[in-house]
Amino acid sequence: TAPSPALFREPVPPNQVSVATRFLEEYLTGGPDLARYLATPNAIQVFAEAPYVAADVRLLGTDSLGRIKAAVAATNERGVQYRLEYSLDLTFQEGIWEVVDLNPAYG
Question: How far from 83 is each of 4, 13, 15, 61, 75, CA to CA, in Å?
Answer without folding.
Answer: 24, 23, 25, 17, 9
